[in-house]
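Quick start: read one record
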Amino acid sequence: MTNITKEDGYFSVSEFAKLAGLARKTLLYYDEIDLFSPAVVLDNGYRYYYYRQLYMINTIKILKEIGMSLKDIKEFIKNQNPTIMINTFDQQQKIIEEKIKDLKTISSMIGMQKEMAMEAENIKMGVVSEEYREREPIFCESRKLYRRGKEVSLSMSVSKFYNDAKNQGITHTFPWGACVDYKKYMHDMTHNYFHYYYHVPESEEYMMEGTYIFTYTYGGRVERQEAYWKLVEYAKEKNYTLEEWAYEDYLINEISAKLPDDFIIKTLIRVI
């Protein structure tokens, strides 16, 4: 073939690369590894692609974008037939659906982190208030940890929480907090009278709905302890009976502050 024209549907390497949205060197590399070659190579070495090849090169681009290796794509093209296509696309579709699910989870996590940080922008520190909260899903490790009859260290408790969350498929940095046995913590800050939780989109565990009294404080131990005294005194004045455990929501946490003392915590106790 000597008369190669655009009118016949043929394009040079540069022209075809532009149409395909690829770099020229990428097309040359695909030809080099025998993945995708020009329709025509003239005696002078000039390469030309046929317009119908745009369909396949776009398919290669898509398969590569979703994580399929060039080796697997090459095998797919080499053995292409309807059955191979159906099986390959079925497998890739399942992978895509898992990625979409994961991206939706990440999007939820980002939205929740933003919402909590935005709440921290308009608060009055140390003031006790009340609010009604709907039931909220959380992932919570509620079992106390002991080794040889003694409660384990904070680092081991945190490690177990992260591992338990990971085993449940929770690998993203959802807004987190601590569930605290505040009556003990009010009198003794040297022990870990708490366990951790994540706010998550879905869970079999929940923060119960109801009226909560709450206050905002910074992340230091002393400030956190003082928050409980304020909440308990407020409850006495209102003649409220409070739940045994309190929640500490970290509105400003490791993502938005460098030092723990700069964290902003919303401390809540449900009225029962």
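Confidence is low (pLDDT under 50) at residues 145-149.
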